[in-house]
């Protein structure tokens, strides 16, 4: 979706969207000078709205929240890759790895 569609969906002014993009809270796809937002951007924008609106989080807080969200997504991706790597191993190695994961680290 384009800028105007996103703004209309969120009921925000274009200046608010520009601020969010400037802060890199939203990073649209750009081709030939045209920005395109996807469903994930819309979901992220709704989270930003909740943070700055009802939750009263300031800009620094939103920066931190968005950075943490990005880190979580990155970790989920890496864990998926790790799980695929484990699945590609012999069953004995898989069992040994999973047994290590089940151990209590505080023991």
From TrEMBL:
Gene3D superfamilies noted in UniProt: 1.10.1660.10
Pfam families: MerR_2
SUPFAM superfamilies, sorted: Putative DNA-binding domain
Top-rank lineage group of the source organism: Bacteria
Protein name stated in the entry: MerR family transcriptional regulator
Natural source organism: Mycoplana rhizolycopersici
């Amino acid at each position: 979706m384009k800028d105007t569609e996103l703004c209309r969906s969120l009921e925000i002014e274009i200046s608010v969207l520009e601020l969010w993009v400037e802060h890199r809270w939203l990073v649209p796809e750009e081709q030939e000078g045209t920005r395109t937002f996807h469903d994930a951007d819309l979901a992220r924008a709704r989270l930003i709205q909740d943070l700055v609106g009802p939750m009263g989080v300031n800009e620094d807080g939103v920066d931190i929240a968005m950075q943490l969200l990005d880190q979580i997504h990155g970790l989920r991706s890496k864990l998926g890759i790790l799980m695929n790597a484990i699945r590609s191993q012999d069953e004995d190695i898989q069992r040994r790895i999973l047994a290590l994961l089940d151990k209590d680290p505080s023991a």
